Structure prediction request, 180 residues.
Amino acid sequence: MRRHFILIVLALSGSLLCMGGIGRANEHDSTVSTAVFGPSLRSVQVDGTIFFFTAAYSGSVDVDFLQFKAGRRSSLGLRAGVEYFETGGVGGRTGGSPYLDYNVLLRSTLSGESLRFDAFLGYTRHTSDLPQYYPAKNLVKYGIELRWKIAPGVFGLLAKVNGTKSAATVGIGLYLGWDQ
Prediction:
């Protein structure tokens, strides 16, 4: 868990540093990069991923609170959503699967014309389909996503890794939704 937490903190820090040179002058413009506060709806999406014996489906809403006006499109905000996932092996489901997570996550986004990278860290209410054996827990959730925008703003491919101290998922799949 500690190793995963350190990786996510590094990913969040790296994405903040890459957000268009915060506080540095742009080569093509002599103005300094600025951060603008203003809540705005960033995206609404559903996605599904699969990898070996893990399948995950989620729906989420992203809201930006801080946009960085620089060469790249980057922002900080929140993600609220629900994620359903199953883990298993050759013999079937394992460890209390399937799970349902209710998420409220701090999100850092770096977006271009054809790619979008998100790193997130926050709170999840982790529930199991077998509550008598695996009671609901409040946990820290972390993760990263990389999207290839096949039809920008609507559809694309998704690679994601996320987890808690109880469970983790890795997957490659599709997303569908609205993205600003």
Notes: Residues 15-30 have pLDDT under 50 and may be disordered. Helices lie at 2-17. Residues 3 and 45 are 29 Å apart (CA to CA).
